[in-house]
């Protein structure tokens, strides 16, 4: 059954696979690595433009390693999951300055790079170096779960072990790059998450989920954790001479290395008529005679495990000094990498 699956997958790949992507067929490990990091938690349609932009601006790993970090984060802006960008920078510097610009060519060495897990290491090892390692991403899990009727939830320790063993058994050892690309393309175009094209699938007659009429049930998943809700109040305060106070987020929380206005995280929504009466406002601004000039509507951003609501509060006069913050010209704000919720506000605010 496993040999039959692999044979039919490669037949489909030769005769029907027309999926096109700018990195498909690429053998340069830097470009493969870059595309895989960008596509972690990102749809191909969105990631393609970022990939092309990065390749244009940073054509080699040395170019990426030598670029200012603020510039790299700015190019990454909007992709989210900013730990990927931090790991991208760390890996680039390690490759450039510790490995002489040469990308590591063995699976263990690739896996040791910051931000690279088994899937990404397998993709680079197989696509760039022809090594027999199976990729196991969401597409592969969905195909295997449906075809074999796997009841073990993906994401569980037992599930990861089981899926990886099956994926390795299915792998075409003599041509792992072609096989790995084929199974991911098959998942993206035929065995899709919603409305799979079972009538066009040459694996259907042996597929457990299709035969049982249960394609929507596989792969089995663990219950999703409840999202944490966070309320962020950003105080947009002038620093004189048409400048604004901002700071870089340095703590290990969401949006590390991105910039923000003066922040107060409240834990709840504060009625607008009460905001100026809070102890935070009184202690930071009220004693100096500040008043609220304008409060924006709520802006929202949903992360994997968090739901963010942000409001932007403009004060009526400049603030002379502010420890831990830097003053930047209003017209330069767009040069700094901000979280999407702040970028969205800057784009539409008549006050910025």
Features:
five-stranded mixed beta sheet, alpha+beta, four-stranded antiparallel beta sheet, 352 residues
Write up what this structure looks like.
The chain is an alpha+beta fold. It is 42% helix and 13% strand. It has 15 helices and 9 strands. It has helices at residues 2-15, 29-39, 44-57, 61-66, 69-76, 83-98, 107-111, 118-129, 138-148, 157-170, 176-189, 208-211, 272-275, 279-284, 340-348; strands at 228-236, 238-240, 243-248, 259-260, 262-265, 292-295, 299-302, 306-315, 326-329. Helix 2 (29-39) runs antiparallel to helix 8 (118-129). The longest helix has 16 residues, at 83-98.
Task: Describe what is shown at a glance.
The chain is α+β, with helices and mostly antiparallel strands.
- Alpha-carbon distance between the two ends: 62 Å
Q: What class do helices, strands and sheet pairing give?
A: alpha+beta
Give the mean pLDDT: 93
Q: How many beta-strand runs?
A: 9
Radius of gyration: 24 Å
- Looking at the chains present, what oligomeric state does this protein adopt? single chain
**Main beta-sheet strand count, sense and barrel state:** 5 strands, mixed
Low-confidence stretches: none
Roughly how much helix do the residues carry, as a percent range?
40-55%
Count of individual helical segments: 15
Per the principal axes of the C-alpha atoms, what is the gross shape? elongated
Topology summary:
Blueprint: H1 2-15, H2 29-39, H3 44-57, H4 61-66, H5 69-76, H6 83-98, H7 107-111, H8 118-129, H9 138-148, H10 157-170, H11 176-189, H12 208-211, E1 228-236, E2 238-240, E3 243-248, E4 259-260, E5 262-265, H13 272-275, H14 279-284, E6 292-295, E7 299-302, E8 306-315, E9 326-329, H15 340-348
Parallel strand pairs: 1-8
Antiparallel strand pairs: 1-5, 2-3, 3-4, 3-9, 6-8, 7-8
Helix pairs in contact: 1-11, 2-3, 2-8, 8-11, 9-11
